[in-house]
Every structure is written in structure tokens, then in C-alpha cells.
Specification:
Strand content: 5-15%
Low-confidence stretches: 1-45
């Protein structure tokens, strides 16, 4: 009787185990690898690759090194993104090394570009199948002849989303580093201390912010504040759109918040980054790209 009772308990335990197994993961809180209904659970979001092996850059004059080496001229060798100058130590050189950066980085930024131009630049960059694409655009959307001519925020969003769709159509897992739009009002405040720079501004550099540089009238102040508000709205768009793409990192407003001084401004126009300013931008980008966790 004792042996039979022991055998009966063993059979009962076995049946219970089979029943629980047949009931699936619900009995233990739904954590089974199979997931509800026996379907495979989605894989976790892949970790960010802090060491991509190729870099493409899109954007505007800042990424072209405009006015960093000579007046009203591009100087891509000092570009924060892909430049070769040791004085900058660009993002591409920091990530890839000097030799590989020379063959595996590409700069498709164009001076004067607005966000509306970025989708076409992105299409050209995609042809190289880069593992990382850098985006810095938006300053020219705010730097217009008047505040009325600034790019509407909705249009800015639509063009940025189009640029990411262009990338994702061919490279669904390529990483994207998005730099915030610089604080244009701070650049005005720093640059206006130089008489030569203000003469260059009169040639048409960012009239919406830099026009009547020495005026503190109510109208001039309102104009500058309106431009600054638009820049902040653009940065909100960049952050929001990038957050919806698991392979995109926004810099957390690091470029916008960087306190550019006269040493970081071009001594040709006192507005664009100097070689030193380009180096600071490279530092910000490298820090963001190589961080284990995204900036919040």
C-alpha cells in the first residue's frame, strides 16, 4: 500500500506538470520564450554601435567648414564631421583613424542648405552604405532675409522626416547622429564685439539675426527673440523625430547649449565656427556617438 501510494503521488505530480506545461506561459506570467499564442517574441532593440566603420555627413555650411580657413570659402578639411586636419580631430578620424577616414568618410553637406535640401544629400550619402550618418541643419532655416521667410516648423519637421525615410529605405539599421541647431543669438552677442565681423555680416550672413547688429530697439530685440524661438522649436522637432527612430541619437541640445566664445568663432565672419570651434563640435559628436546610453 505504501509503494502504491508513493507511485500514485508521482503520477499525479507528472500529470500536473504536463497540464501546466500545456497551459503555456500564462501560468508563469507570460515570460515564456514563445510568447502568447506560441508566437515568437520580438527581439530586443539592438545595442548602439559605438564604433561604426564608415561615416557620411549631410547638412550646411558648418559641416563644410565655411569661413574657418579663409573668407567666404568652404574648408572641408577642418569639418567637425569628416575633416582631415589634426587641429580638429574630426568625428570620422576619432572613430575610424586617419587612414580609414580618408577612404570611408564622405561629406555631402552644402553651404547655404536648409532642411529641405537634406533628403537629396541623404540620397547621395546612402550610395556609400555608411554605418553612421551625421546631420547638422537648421541654421539656414532660421537665417533668412526676414523672420517671415523662416521655414515653418511643420515644413522643417516634414523635410527631416523625409530625410530619415530616404535613409531607412536603403539602410534600415544605419546609425544617425543629429546635432542641434546652434544658439544663433549667442553667436550674435559674441560676434558683435568685432567691427570687422559686423562688416562681413552686412554681406548677407543671417540677416534675420545679425541685421542692425548694434540696435537694441524693441523691434530689433523682438526680431532676434523670434529667431531664437524658432531655433528652439527646430531643436524640439529634431529631438522628437529622432526619438522615434531606434537607430538615431540627438545630441541633447549640446551644440545649442555650448557657450561659443570668440576663440570658437571664425575670424573672417565672427559667426561660423573657427577651426577651434569645429574641434569643439567634433568633441560633442564623438561623446554622443560613443556613449553607452543616449543623451536625454
Amino acid at each position: 500500500m505504501r509503494k502504491r501510494s508513493h507511485r500514485a503521488r508521482a503520477v499525479t505530480a507528472l500529470v500536473a506538470a504536463v497540464v501546466l506545461g500545456a497551459a503555456g506561459c500564462d501560468a508563469i506570467g507570460g515570460d515564456s520564450p514563445g510568447g502568447p499564442g506560441g508566437q515568437a517574441r520580438p527581439s530586443p532593440t539592438p545595442s548602439w554601435n559605438t564604433r561604426p566603420d564608415s561615416v557620411a555627413a549631410v547638412g550646411d555650411s558648418i559641416t563644410r567648414g565655411f569661413d574657418a580657413c579663409s573668407v567666404l570659402s568652404d574648408c572641408p578639411e577642418v569639418s567637425w564631421a569628416t575633416g582631415s586636419s589634426p587641429r580638429v580631430d574630426s568625428l570620422a578620424v576619432r572613430l575610424l583613424g586617419k587612414e580609414r577616414a580618408a577612404t570611408h568618410s564622405w561629406n555631402y553637406a552644402v553651404t547655404g542648405s536648409r532642411m529641405a535640401d537634406v533628403p537629396a544629400q541623404m540620397a547621395r550619402a546612402v550610395a556609400h552604405r555608411p554605418q553612421l550618418v551625421t546631420v547638422m541643419a537648421g541654421a539656414n532655416d532660421a537665417c533668412r532675409d526676414s523672420i517671415a521667410a523662416m521655414t515653418p516648423v511643420a515644413d522643417f519637421r516634414a523635410r527631416f522626416e523625409e530625410a530619415l525615410r530616404t535613409l531607412r529605405a536603403s539602410l534600415p539599421t544605419a546609425e544617425v547622429y543629429v546635432a542641434s541647431v546652434p544658439n544663433l543669438k549667442r553667436l550674435w552677442a559674441q560676434g558683435r564685439t568685432n567691427a570687422l565681423g559686423k562688416q562681413i555680416w552686412k554681406l548677407g550672413i543671417c540677416p534675420s539675426m545679425l541685421g542692425d547688429a548694434d540696435s537694441f530697439s524693441a523691434a530689433a530685440t523682438l526680431r532676434r527673440d523670434t529667431v531664437q524661438d524658432r531655433v528652439e522649436a527646430y531643436n524640439g522637432v529634431l529631438k522628437d523625430v529622432c526619438a522615434k527612430d531606434r537607430h538615431c541619437r540627438f545630441d541633447g541640445n549640446a551644440v545649442h547649449d555650448f557657450r561659443f566664445g570668440t576663440a570658437q568663432l571664425s575670424h573672417w565672419d565672427w559667426f561660423h565656427p573657427s577651426t577651434d570651434g569645429q574641434a569643439r563640435l567634433a568633441e560633442i559628436a564623438y561623446r554622443t556617438v560613443t556613449a553607452k546610453e543616449p543623451v536625454t
